[in-house]
Amino acid sequence: SCSTKPEGVGGWGSESWWQEHAIHVIIGANIGVFVMWQSLKLRRFMAKNFALSTTGVLVDWKFHTVLTSVFSHYDWVHLGTNIVTLLLFGTETLAVLGARRFVALYMVGGLFSSCCQVAWPIISGSARYSPNQLGLGASGAINAVVAFSVLTFPGRMLLFYWVLPVSAAGLGVLFLGKDIAGLMLGDPSLGNPAHVGGALFGGALWMRWGRPRPFI
Above 60 in pLDDT, residue 171? Predict the structure, then answer.
C-alpha cells in the first residue's frame, strides 16, 4: 500500500514547511551564533569570522563576513531586540510574500546592509568611521523586513515602547530619521550605515514587487 499527503502539506524543506517555519529558522540561526559567541575558546574565531569591518573585507578578503555577520550577536539585549522586531514585523511580511521572497528579502537585505557598512568609511571620508571598526548583527536585514512591512501596512497601529499608539508609517519615519541622524552625528559603532542600507533595500524591493496581496 502507499500513503499520500494532503494537498499543500509537505515535509521538511517543502514550500509549505518554509512558509510555517522560515522565521523560526532565521531566529534559530541567530541564537546558534549567539551561543557560539559565549564560548571563550571560540571568541577569537568568532571575531575573525562573524564580525564585519572595511579592512577585513577589502584588505584581508574575508568576504564571508558580509553574510556571517548578519546572523551574529554578541550580547543578549541586541539579540532579543532583533528577535522581537522580526516577530513583530516579519510575521505579516512572510504572509504576504511567501517563504521564498521573504527569505530573499532578509538575506539579500542583510548582504546589502553589510556592503553599506563596509563602504561607508570610504564614502563618508569621515575620521569618525574607522575601517577597522567591527560590526555585527541582524539589524540591517531586519530593517529591510521592517521597511517592507511599513510600506505594505502603513496604517497599522503599533504601541511605541508598548505605551504610545503610533502608525507603522509614523514609526518607520521616526526610526529611519534616527538612523540617518546617527549616520551623520551618532556613535559610529552602532552600525547606522547597515541600518539605513537595510531600510532602503526593503523600500526598493517593495517598489519593485509592488504592494503584494496575502500569500495563500
Answer: yes
| DSSP conformation letters of the chain | ----PPTT---TTSHHHHHHHHHHHHHHHHHHHHHHHT-GGGHHHHHHHS-B-HHHHHTS--TTHHHHGGG--SSHHHHHHHHHHHHHHHHHHHHHH-HHHHHHHHHHHHHHHHHHHHHHHHHH--TTS-TT--B--SHHHHHHHHHHHHHHSTT-EEEETTTEEEEHHHHHHHHHHHHHHHHHHS-GGG-HHHHHHHHHHHHHHHHHH-SPPPP-
d(CA 23, CA 83): 9
As given in the structure block, the three cell numbers for residue 72 are 551574529
CA gap 123, 21 in Å, rounded: 38
Q: Give, in order, the Cα–Cα distances in Å from 184 to each of 41, 80, 121, 126, 188.
A: 37, 26, 12, 9, 9
Task: Note the pTM of the prediction, 2 decimals.
Answer: 0.88
Q: Which of 211, 214, 188, 179 is nearest to 54 (CA)?
A: 188
Q: Is pLDDT of 46 > 70? A: yes
Give the separation between CA 54 and CA 78, rounded to whole angstroms.
22
Residues paired with residue 11 on neighbouring β-strands, in sequence order:
none
Give per-residue pLDDT as tens, 48-74: 999 999 999 999 999 999 999 999 999
Q: Cα–Cα distance between 99 and 22 in angstroms, integer?
A: 6
Residue 189 CB contacts under 8 Å (≥ 6 apart), including other chains: 133, 135
